[in-house]
């Protein structure tokens, strides 16, 4: 039986989109023209995923410069600060919480609707989780990580409710900061529970845990309130996956990374097959999904395509 | 004596397009549009500019900003024989990731790693230059060891390799060395490993060198009775994320200098020199009896460059304020 496949969210932006963004930044084209180029990039990302037989599709995050800032810049009380390095030569612009957080408009719904209409299969709506929004921001207002986190949880909660009302059956919250501070695991749990409460029983909630330390926090992370948990592993030889998998409550899905998204070398189908076999010893096959370790945005387009192609081929013959 | 000091890294890109040369060059290298030499040229220019920028804030002790570094551990680790790099690992509770070192064979340093960079930085003629190295105990904690089988042996091998580097740096004219051991705050049971490693590395700096054992992202309260064992002319303490360090100021051995992390390098909120000085008042006598360097508690690359520069200005104002109000000479 083939294993199910999805991706974490982002695909590389095509050169035409980079060019359109540059022209928009310099005032040569308006927002509508940029949006049309983004839409075309979304259509192409969806077409690629459909051609590979990926089971749960994503829009490729063509409108996001980075996951946190592009979401937060639409919120009241937020200003976007300067560039900060994340790793290698990857940088993000971090939000600065300058006042009470509030939601002024939908940030995810339009993009989800567009992708859903353009796709022939099921599309997963993706937005940042409340804990990572807090952890990824500079707080100049609340003075309390808990208060800031729960304020973000209210905003994400409204977004999730809106997505579920629009028919989204799969909603993913990105929590790459999960486990960064072990003493805040309860806060992470509480914020996720609050944010996803309105969609309970209506949509399947996925939480992407990024490069969380499974060896130290596996059982705590496995207990987070979600139908599916997505973890990286290909980059690290699956350290801690066993403890995480053992603690995974019955009926929950685990999507485990089988291709590295930092290393440009394309893994062979056989290599990925070996990884899947190893993971399938730990996670029951009917609860296991194959995914890349993370978003594909930092890879060159041809590398990302090759990696996802190999992943899908390996999942088909697993 | 009071001086202002940068901790280690400095943001390598700024917010304006003309401040992003290094990012552009790295991308062009990745796409094969330029060669290594072209990238190195840009790195050298940016490093020189960062030394100049820190000096422009009138900070007494600067670094080259570590602008060529891939990460706090991986840049040096990857240049040692016997070490390869694995996947990403979060750098403590920050938003910065590094590649995890994997020890696959005997660790050694075959060629200088930071000597060329230090020589170039010295050519910019900063008031004083500090070279920072990852500590062997922290490296051994985070690395995946597939060769030595015990952390102590690995740390010892790393210390010997780093000592070779320090010896060459000293010969190149570097007089101030900092060894980063943030893991000591999280694992006080590593005290022996830290002491052995730092003693080996600092001995290579030679007599007269300034040697700073830097700890951060926590405090050393758990080893309060053993502070006298820590090698180095100066002890680096994080007074922001390690509030348990404040009472330790009264328990330090005579003659030990301090490298105090007084400004939070993890937030863009700018502490004023006045508010930081107010925190120091109860410790005035203790501090004035020592050689003190004051600055951010860790590397500044966790915040945007405009905020990093503002923090450095406040470091300078703090030093000026303490000179003026406490009559503390620099």
Taking pLDDT < 50 over at least 5 consecutive residues as the criterion, the unreliable ranges of chain A are none
The average pLDDT score of chain B comes to: 96
Fraction in helix of chain A: 40-55%
Largest interface (CB < 8 Å): A-B, 34 and 38 residues
Q: Give the overall pLDDT of chain A as a whole number.
A: 95
- SSE order of chain A: EHHHEEHEHEHEHEHEHEHEH
Gyration radius over CA of chain A? 19 Å
Please give the count of helices of chain A.
11
Quaternary: heterodimer
Output the structural class of chain B: alpha/beta
The count of β-strands of chain B is 10
Sketch the major β-sheet of chain B.
Answer: 7 strands, parallel
- SS class of chain A: alpha/beta
Question: How much helix is in the residues of chain B?
Answer: 25-40%
Rg over CA atoms of chain B:
19 Å
Write the element-wise H/E pattern of chain B from the N-terminal end onward.
Answer: EHHHEEHEHEHEHHEEEHHEH
Supply database-style keywords.
heterodimer, A: 318 residues, alpha/beta, 7-stranded parallel beta sheet, 3-stranded mixed beta sheet, 42% helix, 19% strand, B: 330 residues, 10 strands
Structure overview:
The complex is a heterodimer of chains A (318) and B (330). Helix content of chain A is 42%, strand content 19%. Chain A has 11 helices and 10 strands. In chain A, helix 1 packs antiparallel against helix 2 (31-52) and helix 10 packs across helix 11. Chain B is α/β, with parallel strands linked by helices and 330 residues long. Chain B contains 11 helices and 10 strands. Chain B has helices spanning 21-30, 36-56, 74-77, 115-123, 136-142, 151-171, 183-186, 191-203, 273-280, 284-288, 305-325, and strands spanning 2-4, 81-90, 97-108, 130-134, 144-145, 176-180, 210-214, 234-238, 257-263, 292-296. Classes of the chains: A alpha/beta (318), B alpha/beta (330). At the A-B interface, strand 2, strand 3 and strand 5 of A face helix 1, strand 2, strand 3 and helix 11 of B.
